[in-house]
Every structure is written in structure tokens, then in C-alpha cells.
Sequence to fold (297 residues):
Amino acid sequence: MQCDDITWNILRKGQCAFKAWTKPTLFCRNEMNLTGLCNRASCPLANSQYATVREENGVCYLYMKVIERSHYPRRLWEKIKLSKDMNKALEQISDNLLHWSEYVRHKCKARLIRIHQYLIRMRRMALKGTQKKIIPVARKVERREKRREEKALVAAKLDKAIESELLSRLRQGTYGDIYNFRQEAFEHMLDENETAVEREEELEVEDDEVNRDIYVFCLFRKRKKDVGRVQYVADLESSDEEDVDDIEDTAGGHWTPPDTDSEDDDWQRPQEAPKRRRPHVEIEYEDESELRSKIKA
Fold:
């Protein structure tokens, strides 16, 4: 069975999760607390018969707790909706809290009046539209951007002034004549150009000499490798005669298949170097008698 005095002695001397330690007075963070103070009469945990008023979405409700429902934690609080009319809401509190203490009944009415006051103030503020969104401003960034704008404006004005001055000089004919520079500076510039051209020519000559040396060295190495190498080369005169015979056979329309049978099939010839390709030669034969008859005709 619940005993309110024992519960309060434990909470007052011991640790309470809803207790807020402050120097003048102790406050209570429990949402069901009637006054927000941590004392015996206002503690919702140490009073088996308790009542309070709460606001939810602009609507006021009366919450009541009795000892008969202490063994039902889910049904511990009874919720009653109060009327929007202040007089009717006060009558509802008086009727429902008839057997409660005068302290609880008075504090519930005072809490209801206070809730009605801040609800009215909220409605007025919403109608007037006086709520403003406060946006923090970075002072350093603002000053830096302002300085940059000022510098850019000064530079733009200077460029504009220079442009206008040059245009005015051009209209007046200030730049119409050719300027005579010093002869020494002109000759110095020519000498530098000639020196650069000579340097480029020397570099080209050096590159040619290097390339020639590389070519000679590669040719020498190639000849050195070919020393002592055995190559088999066909007779040039016989090959020329064979080419002429082949051309004559082709012109006469006679063709003989190549001899595929070789007596030396078993003998493996040494590997020959690839022959160089010769240019194609065409030989035509004309009869002198026919040529003379054509000339006479």
C-alpha cells in the first residue's frame, strides 16, 4: 500500500531524477507538477490524490490521480477536456475537484488562467505578424567584402580614366609620328638577334655532325659483322639469260610447268640471304621489213 509520507521522506533526503538543484529554491522537472516547485504539496509522486492542468495543441485538459487506480499504472491519470470558455472551464474544475484540497483546486484554476493568457498572446502575435526571423551576420566577412568592392571600384575608375586619356591623345595626334629610339639600344637588339641566329646554326651543325658519326659507326659495325659470313649468290649472266628466255616463251605463248621433281630433295641447302628485287624489264622485237613497208606507205 502506498504511503505518501514515506515516499516524500525518501525523495527529499535521497536522490530524485526530477529535482533541479538551485540556490534559492528547488525546482521540479516533472511534467505533471502543478507549480514547478519541489515541495510536499506540489510533488506528483508523493501525493496519491493529485490534479493538474496541461495544454496540448491549444486545448486545455484536467488530469486527476486517485489512490484507487495506483495498481494500474496505465490508467493512473484521468484526462478531462476543458471548455474554451474561461467561466465554464473554472466550473468544470470546481465540480471535478470537489473532494480535493483547497490548495490543489486553487492552483489548478491559477494554472488554467495562466495558460489562457499565453494562448491569447500567441494568437495576437500570429495575427499581427510581428514574428521576425533572426539571421546572424558575419561582421568580418561583411567588412572584407565591402573593402573588396571599394578596391574594385577604384581600379575600375582608374582604368576608365586611363582609357579616356589614351583616346584623347589619339584624337589629338600625339601618337601620329614615329618615335626615334636611341641607336645604341637598336644596335644592341640587333646584336642579340644575330647571336641567337648564330647559336641556332651552330646547334644544327653539331646535330648534323653527331648524326653523321652515328651513321658511320652503325655502317662500320654492320660491315664488321658481315666479315667471314658465307653467302650464296646466283650467276648474274645466267640469270639474265634465263629472264630473257622466260620473256620469249611468254611472248610465243609456250609455257612449260616447272620441274617439281628434284634429285637433291634429301640435300638441305644452306640458308641464303634474301635476293634483292630487280626492276621489271620489257623487251620488244620489231621486224625491219615491216617497219620499212610502213614508212613507204
